[in-house]
Amino acid sequence: MARLAQTAGLTDIQQEILSTVRDFVDKEIIPVATELEHRDEYPQAIVDGLKELGLFGLMIPEEYGGLGESLLTYALCVEEIARGWMSVSGIINTHFIVAYMLKQHGTQEQKDHFLPRMAAGDTRGAFSMSEPALGSDVSAITSKAVQDGDEYVLNGQKMWLTNGGTSNLVAVLVRSDEGHPEGTAPHKSMTTFLVEKEPGFGEVRPGLTIPGKIDKMGYKGVDTTELIMDGLRIPANRVLGGTTGRGFYQMMDGVEVGRVNVAARGCGVAQRAFELGVQYAQQRHTFGKPIAQHQAIQFKLAEMATKVEAAHAMMVNAARKKDSGERNDLEAGMAKYLASEYCKEVVEDAFRIHGGYGFSKEYEIERLYREAPMLLIGEGTAEIQKMIIGRRLLEEYRFQG
Ligand SMILES: Cc1cc2nc3c(=O)[nH]c(=O)nc-3n(C[C@H](O)[C@H](O)[C@H](O)COP(=O)(O)OP(=O)(O)OC[C@H]3O[C@@H](n4cnc5c(N)ncnc54)[C@H](O)[C@@H]3O)c2cc1C
Questions:
Q1: Probe ligand 1: pick from 93, 127, 136, max atoms within 8 Å of CB?
Q2: Are residues 216 and 156 both part of a single domain?
Q3: What distance in Å separates the CA atoms of residue 184 and residue 187, rounded to the nearest whole number?
Q4: What is the share, in percent, of the chain residues with pLDDT greater than 70?
Q5: What are the CA-CA distances from residue 204 to residues 98, 129, 161, 199 (Å)?
Q6: Could you list the residue range(s) of the whole structural domain that residue 21 is in?
Q7: Domain CATH code at residue 145
Q8: Ligand 1 atom at minimal distance to the Cα of residue 219
Q9: Does residue 4 sit within a domain?
Q10: Residue 1: pLDDT band with limits 50, 70, 90
Q11: Confidence (pTM)
């Protein structure tokens, strides 16, 4: 049988990387994922394995010790990993966004300093825009940096940092009015700081506290935290790109590739849900035959597989567009929106196919059911994606009358 979600036109190297990752997922992730997730345990052995495979440096250029691969290769790897356990894809996602932002916007000194360590997986990235009072409305950020000689002093509270505890480099977006006169548009008075810190919780650097893990309904194993800055002093050479006032654009660029990544995660989780559903439907008998032989269940499987295929095609299209050097905000927004909605629907159908057993923690689908909703929120909610898509459509189809 042809597997779902095949990608035409891959190079030999891409196919080799994907087959290695798939093998790793089948042998090292799937067998332990549910147990680790139920214990909310950080998957250290899996992370070590990914490090060995070079996945932390997948898109980092070869001159910095990475594999120099495309966004498409990265997204397809993420899809495979999320098929095994979505939390593991979360561990590499923020790292990947920070490395991408450094590659695109960092000064030469910042690239030379950070990228080789990030490629090796020794420096691990997290990114921080959200605050307790805002997530969608990034322009309302209140955390602030004030210049003091060769340093900036940062104050404020951040929220929802994926890998906030385990990372040792956080790209933090704050307001920095220095040099930006009164009345400057909010998005032009923001700066991204590259904040190095010790991994762990508590005061991880003078003026910087990571209070502890937020207890979540799913997406467990990976740590999600707050971050409190109280007189945190950062040298001026740790302003991303060396110039203040560009942080909003740098973060949005990072989030745009992050959206392809979230779409890829949706594809991976949906694929796994389909696999679980189609297997269970052939094992469970009711009214004298496997439930897969009831048309209602077959229709469900047909709908699920169609959604898996459609989401995969849109995700691949968005990644290829970015790789070709073109603007891909429309495609990334559509892919993220569709893949996360379809993921939720496919997981729900697989859950229904499992009947009462889907409600038992012994079945993998229970974990997927708690994981899928995060994709509806992370890297911009469905409403935010629709705002981006709508705005871009009105640009493309401007009324000429
Ligand atoms: C597990 C997890 C991990 C995360 N990791 C990170 C991370 O690593 N770094 C980081 O910076 N952030 C992270 N986030 C934060 C995430 O990006 C935000 O939660 C998300 O952007 C939504 O923001 P919010 O929660 O403040 O919701 P709000 O912005 O308050 O939105 C609430 C609701 O209102 C809707 N809404 C808002 N504005 C509009 C509008 N104009 N029109 C219509 N509807 C609207 C939203 O779609 C949503 O349904 C994470 C979140 C979670 C749950």
A1: 136
A2: yes
A3: 8
A4: 98
A5: 19, 19, 15, 7
A6: 12-119
A7: 2.40.110.10
A8: 1
A9: no
A10: very low
A11: 0.96
